[in-house]
Design brief:
10 helices; three-stranded antiparallel beta sheet; 4% strand; 3 strands; mainly alpha; flat
């Protein structure tokens, strides 16, 4: 009994030391990558400070840090086993960054930097840990200031949609590019009307909620999976709970829909009663 207790303490200490060493190595690798491409990093920070469409860059870092912190209880019992596949990915993304520097395409270099940071985690910690932290690390891609190239296209779409809506409304309009004239005056579509800020922010927020749902259902699935090993009946319980949950959601939705229908019928009857009273 004492030997087992000592072995468990030694194993726990080994895992803790392995995780701490892996974290230090990852931070050193990240520092080396960011320092090597400090010019591109400075461009990214300038874009966060000057471009309204990419002001959420700092929020991305906070979200990634929070998601990684929420993974700590799961990662404490894992060993760091360096992966050759991660090292190969690190080399390939480094080659991609070098290629982007040669052709002077900042977006390619900046995306390659983020992919290098993700690959460094894979190379140092191994497949098992990387599988658990890939979701949070994926959000680092939203920190890259991309999308400004499609702004003219979005502005053209906004102008065309506005002109179509005006014509369907019966308002005479004359369009010339992004400028159009109506009886009340002359109007034009500017950069703020392109919708790039709303588009990028909404995609980021949608991705956050999507990954949150995946984490939630993934945890439930893991629990049910472990339970199946303990007994055949527990798997049926998990399925029953899932079916009941869907039935509850459907009941709520159908109940809300029926309430709306009954309310509309009541409004229609009240209006008809009023019409009949006036006619009488």
């Amino acid at each position: 009994m004492a030997d087992q207790l000592i072995d468990s303490k030694v194993l726990s200490g080994t895992r803790r030391g392995s995780g701490l060493l892996g974290l230090v190595v990852v931070l050193i690798a990240w520092g080396a990558i960011l320092f090597s491409f400090r010019t591109q990093v400075r461009m990214v920070l300038d874009a966060w400070d000057t471009l309204p469409s990419h002001e959420h860059g700092y929020v991305v870092l906070v979200v990634v840090a929070y998601l990684l912190w929420s993974k700590l209880p799961v990662l404490r019992g894992e060993f760091c086993r360096p992966s050759w596949k991660g090292f190969a990915a690190l080399v390939l993304t480094g080659f991609l960054a070098m290629l982007g520097e040669l052709v002077s395409v900042a977006a390619v270099v900046q995306f390659a930097i983020v992919l290098m940071m993700i690959s460094a985690v894979w190379a140092v910690t191994g497949d098992e840990i990387f599988r658990r932290v890939f979701g949070p690390l994926f959000f680092l891609l939203f920190a890259v200031p991309f999308g400004q190239e499609i702004l003219p296209v979005l502005m053209n779409w906004t102008a065309d949609a506005t002109v179509v809506a005006l014509r369907h409304s019966g308002v005479p309009v004359y369009q010339e590019g992004r400028n159009f004239v109506i009886p009340s005056g002359q109007w034009s579509v500017v950069e703020a009307c392109g919708g790039i800020r709303y588009l990028l922010t909404s995609v980021f927020i949608g991705a956050v909620f999507a990954v949150g749902e995946v984490f939630c259902h993934g945890a439930t699935g893991a629990t049910v999976g472990k339970c199946k090993h303990r007994g055949a009946g527990c798997g049926r319980v998990g399925k029953t709970v899932g079916v009941n949950r869907h039935k509850q959601i459907r009941t709520v939705l159908v109940g809300d829909l029926n309430a709306v229908i009954q309310r509309n019928k009541g409004v229609a009857r009240a209006r008809q009663t009023g019409v009949n009273a006036v006619a009488a």
